[in-house]
Amino acid sequence: MPDTLSLSQSQPQQHAFNPYTENGGTILAIAGADFSVIAGDTRQSEGYNIQTRYAPKVFRLTDKAVLAVNGFAADGNMFVKKVRQRLEWYRHAHAKDMPIRAIARLIQTMLYSRRFFPYYVYNILGGIEEDGTGAVYSFDPVGSYEREACRAAGAAQSLVQPFLDNQIYFKNQTPAPGTSFPRHLPLSTVLSLVIDSFTSATERHIEVGDGLEIYVVLAKNSPSIQGLRDVRGVSELTSTDDGERVFVVRRELKKD
Amino acid sequence: MSIMQYNGGSVIAMVGKDCVAIASDLRLGSQALGISSNFQRVFPITDRIYLGLPGLATDVTTLRERFRLRVNMYTIKEEREIEPEAFAHLVSSTLYEHRFGPYFIEPVIAGLSKTPTGGIKPFIAATDLIGCINFAKDFVVAGTASAKLFGVAEGLWEPDMEAEDLFETISQTLLNAVDRDAFSGWGAVVHVITKDKVITRKLKARMD
Amino acid sequence: MDHFPTNWGRPRNDAYDAYGTFPLPHRPNNDTKDAFASGVQRTQQPIVTGTSVLALKYKDGIMMAADNLASYGSLARFKDVQRLHPVGKYTVIGAGGDISDFQYIQKFLEELIIEEFTSQDGHDLGPAEIHEYLSQVMYARRSKLNPLWNSLLVGGFKDGKSFLAYVDLLGTTYSASTLATGFGAYLAQPILRKEVEGKETELTEDEAIRIMETCIRVLYYRDARSIDKYQLATITADGVKISDSRHISTSWSFAEGIRGYGAQTQ
């Protein structure tokens, strides 16, 4: 009897504190010729618990850059806060907004500086390049990044990305003889694909749903503005009047 | 890594207008190593029923023979061909017999069943490895690329497609899904079952 | 009998996961054997704990509720503890989790309020500022792997606007018109959402009290770490009010009819 007692006392039961959790949700971005679309759902969850039906994952950084963050929400919010702080310092030093390719490199150094205690966040940066083209940059949690035309990340990445491969890159499709596939899709097509992607992900993934926020960044004097005017639920967020323009489209998703 | 992912492979089935389709990749692997690009995992059961067996390759062989035996016994006893609904329950009960030491297979069933009025009705179903049946009205998926198949199928599928449209939809769904899956791919085969014939086509796919 | 297969073969940690309700990936894996474990000061675990806190938005502002129990494991150790705490003139915070960590939070928030007051700059801290400050503290502590082991609700009313938000030991934050921490997230939140969502600007104080009573009663019936003594706080244009301890009525007559669990002879 004394033996068993001392045995149980000598090994106090302990567990390490886990500083991470996963908060679900999915984000996605698609670049057009002179625009960029960045979207995310608004559900925040932990395990089977829906914490809130409205917690934004997509943030306007400048009039030409929008950042979507997905993974551990506390890290995500802190990361956006720090990126914004660095962009403000840049503004004070240079009297202009940081170009998007510079923001992308900034994000990579900020992520890599936490290489051994990472921000558990997948970032997708969308916006307009200095040459007026639409851009999407995607990152892993420790800063690997590349510029591409489209990217999905988060809980339903595996559902959405192959769909986008097919519909954006026309993978596994051959054009009719004598024709070719467009390199960039028009804004209306891109918006339809984004909405379809999220309704599909909502249907088959429990961590996706509740609401959808689609940010649209238009290059200076982009003709795509015409198609955006009559989109349901659109509102403008632009802060200046002679440059790129930022819009957000808000939609409902199923709540079950 | 789970035993379900050891050999890789994926299967999908879809319903169309008076037709069904079932498709699979052709890869056999040993974890990340590719072994064969011509591994059959979809089998005809009757003229109007096809069965896909994604999962552990050794159990694919075993179960194919088991189902051949049991369908033959059924045909002899009943003196008629088995219907897809009955076959789905046969699959289910066969797997459930091994509830606590299962075959590592998630079968997918596609077929056309006869209606009392003499017509035909498309039928698809899938079960988990212990025989829980999912009767779906649209599509069923299984295997290592199942999440990707769900995503693409949910985006591309629509009701009442004719045989040729159904072929295009299931082919695109499968190819784009397995191209994002390291354990599936290396070629594909599609069967479209219609009232008077079964169209089988092999698809060229990415070989990386 | 532990009905959660993921817990089988693992020592139970009552203080950390009293109900075995943590999401599967986050279940404590208590069986890892670290040869140097005894030489390392591990962060901590909650010792004296409070259970759920509930809050909702209603017509006049925010209502918050929490019972008066502080548990020591499964022992109902302190039965007259206040878990709702006013901060400044416009805010109440409610805490679940470790009570001593909560008292430390009360202390530094009090210092913060005094500091802000003495500057006499014509500004004072509202609920949004206090929540932001708390979030930064909680996140900073988790980043040092030395968390304040709490789930906190921050409710307030300032400049005609109500505010309600959550923050926990990981620094996770969110906001909604109804919030519940701990076991309340499972038992009370569905009731709160059904009763409140879409009616935030119509609910009267009496209706809000009735909803809170229902939730507290459900929790008392099913949450073994709760008691039937609780307090209500309201934060409105009239300021902060925290009620005296109240008693929730319960009925146990149905227990007579239950057969099969106890030691009945018939």
From TrEMBL, chain A:
GO biological process per UniProt: proteolysis involved in protein catabolic process
GO CC terms: cytoplasm; nucleus; proteasome core complex, beta-subunit complex
Chief place of localization: cytoplasm
Assigned keywords, A-Z: Cytoplasm, Nucleus, Proteasome
Subcellular localization, as worded in the UniProt entry: Cytoplasm; Nucleus
InterPro entries: Ntn_hydrolases_N, Proteasome_bsu_CS, Proteasome_sua/b, Proteasome_suB-type
Gene3D superfamilies the record matches: Glutamine Phosphoribosylpyrophosphate, subunit 1, domain 1
SUPFAM superfamilies: N-terminal nucleophile aminohydrolases (Ntn hydrolases) (SSF56235)
Family, as annotated: Belongs to the peptidase T1B family.
Purpose: Component of the proteasome, a multicatalytic proteinase complex which is characterized by its ability to cleave peptides with Arg, Phe, Tyr, Leu, and Glu adjacent to the leaving group at neutral or slightly basic pH. The proteasome has an ATP-dependent proteolytic activity.
Subunit structure: Component of the proteasome complex. The 26S proteasome consists of a 20S proteasome core and two 19S regulatory subunits. The 20S proteasome core is composed of 28 subunits that are arranged in four stacked rings, resulting in a barrel-shaped structure. The two end rings are each formed by seven alpha subunits, and the two central rings are each formed by seven beta subunits. The catalytic chamber with the active sites is on the inside of the barrel.
Name recorded for this polypeptide: Proteasome subunit beta
Native source organism of the sequence: Macrolepiota fuliginosa MF-IS2
TrEMBL record, chain B:
PROSITE patterns cross-referenced by the UniProt entry: PROTEASOME_BETA_1, PROTEASOME_BETA_2
Localization of this protein: Cytoplasm; Nucleus
Coiled coil start-end: none
CDD domains in UniProt: proteasome_beta_type_3
A matching Pfam family: Proteasome
UniProt subunit comment: Component of the proteasome complex.
Function: Component of the proteasome, a multicatalytic proteinase complex which is characterized by its ability to cleave peptides with Arg, Phe, Tyr, Leu, and Glu adjacent to the leaving group at neutral or slightly basic pH. The proteasome has an ATP-dependent proteolytic activity.
Predominant location category: cytoplasm
An example Gene Ontology CC term for this record: nucleus
Family: Belongs to the peptidase T1B family.
Alphabetical list of SUPFAM superfamilies matching this protein: N-terminal nucleophile aminohydrolases (Ntn hydrolases) (SSF56235)
Name of this protein: Proteasome subunit beta
Source organism per UniProt: Macrolepiota fuliginosa MF-IS2
Domain of life: Eukaryota
Keywords for this protein: Cytoplasm, Nucleus, Proteasome
A GO biological-process term: proteasome-mediated ubiquitin-dependent protein catabolic process
InterPro entries, sorted: Ntn_hydrolases_N, Proteasome_beta_3, Proteasome_bsu_CS, Proteasome_sua/b, Proteasome_suB-type
From TrEMBL, chain C:
Pfam families hit by this protein: Proteasome
Compartment(s) where it occurs, according to its Swiss-Prot or TrEMBL record: Cytoplasm; Nucleus
PROSITE patterns: PROTEASOME_BETA_1, PROTEASOME_BETA_2
Chief localisation class: cytoplasm
A biological process from GO: proteolysis involved in protein catabolic process
UniProt-recorded name of the protein: Proteasome subunit beta
Gene3D superfamilies recorded: Glutamine Phosphoribosylpyrophosphate, subunit 1, domain 1
Keyword Nucleus carried by entry: yes
Keywords linked to the UniProt accession: Cytoplasm, Nucleus, Proteasome
Top-level taxon in the UniProt lineage: Eukaryota
Gene Ontology CC annotations of this record: cytoplasm; nucleus; proteasome core complex, beta-subunit complex
Described function: Non-catalytic component of the proteasome.
InterPro entries reported for this sequence: Ntn_hydrolases_N, Proteasome_beta4, Proteasome_bsu_CS, Proteasome_sua/b, Proteasome_suB-type
Family affiliation: Belongs to the peptidase T1B family.
